[in-house]
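User: Before I run my own analysis I want an independent prediction to cross-check against. Here's the chain; please return only the structure tokens and, at the end, one sentence I can use as a sanity check.
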Amino acid sequence: MIRLNVFISVEDVNRTQVLDAAKELTAASVKEDGCIAYDVFESATRPNVLLICETWKDSEAISNHEKTASFIKNIAILKELTTIKVEKFNF
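Assistant: Structure tokens:
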């Protein structure tokens, strides 16, 4: 399995739009083959930080995920309006 922790830093002015995109991405992703878990979290101490925590069966599932319309649409929004840092763990 593969875990991706996607840390998202967002300015307050863009927070609602970014959170909406992250929630839309989450709702679609949990339905995909190979998705074990997919959640978006809001920091309780830093309002400008969100976390998308993804768990995938394997690299093929992630590759297929990155080709979906939901991913392409919503990652474009996230990349435009935020700073993203990804941590990847294999287990």
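Sanity check: DSSP finds three helices and four strands in the chain.
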